[in-house]
Amino acid sequence: MIIIRQLSTIEAMQQAPALAALLRDAVEDGASVGYVLPLPEETVARYWTGVIAGIAAGDRLLLAAFDGEQLAGSIQLALVGKPNGRHRADVEKLLVFTNMRQRGIGKALLAAAEEAARAHGRTLLVLDTKRGGRGATLPEIRLHRGRGDPPLRHQRGRGRAR
User: Fold this and answer.
1) Tell me: the pLDDT tens digits for 70-108?
2) Domain spans of the chain?
3) Which residues, listed in sequence order, are joined to residue 127 by a DSSP beta bridge?
4) Which of 93, 79, 69, 113 is nearest to 20 (CA)?
5) CB contact set of 51 (below 8 Å; sequence gap of 6+)
6) Distance separating alpha carbons of residues 159 and 162, to the nearest angstrom
7) Sorting pLDDT into bands at 50, 70 and 90, what band is 156?
8) pLDDT of 133-154, one tens digit each?
9) Long-range contacts: 79-87, Cβ < 8 Å, 24+?
């Protein structure tokens, strides 16, 4: 059974080796996640160190899916801290181990991210995905206003959405 939970700074540090393996697995499978092969270990470690620092600072959430004790996937929410963007969070690095795909884990992680966003007062999620890629087949994010309506990316100086 898949369990999804938000990781604390300490839990993320404990999961660092598995998280590193997850990022490497995604890159080796050709995922468009900002990295290419060859992918040095120090680059992967530096990336997760930055994520963990963001968790500690309170501007990033890391949700992880587990199959028993084994990490199956993860997703991140970057909480926009600028005064005109505090209604928004960026969805980042939705990753599922290749041997765990086609089990609904990505969909479950995305739903958990939406709930976490709501709990943090976020009413808009921004997800950047490659057209025609695997991520493009995920269900639409419910916190988006809808097709044809541009999302409210930021607030104007007087608090009106734009």
Assistant:
1) 999 999 999 999 988 899 999 999 999 999 999 999 999
2) 2-128
3) 91
4) 93
5) 12, 19, 60, 62, 76
6) 9
7) very low
8) 555 555 555 544 444 444 554 4
9) 79/120, 79/122, 82/154, 83/155, 84/154, 84/155, 84/156, 84/157, 85/153, 85/154, 85/155, 86/121, 86/155, 87/121, 87/122, 87/123, 87/124, 87/152, 87/155, 87/161
Does residue 154 contact residue 85 with C-beta atoms inside 8 Å? yes
Give the CATH number of domain 2-128. 3.40.630.30
Q: Residues 57, 51: contact at Cβ < 8 Å?
A: no
- The angle formed by the CA atoms of residues 153, 143 and 2, to the nearest 5 degrees, is 130
Q: Mind listing the pLDDT tens digit for each residue in 26-75?
A: 999 999 899 999 999 999 999 999 999 999 999 999 999 999 999 999 99
Structure tokens at 107: 């969909």
Question: Cα(7)–Cα(64) distance, rounded to whole angstroms?
Answer: 7
Amino acid 128: pLDDT: 77
Kind plus residue range of the DSSP H or E element containing 158? none
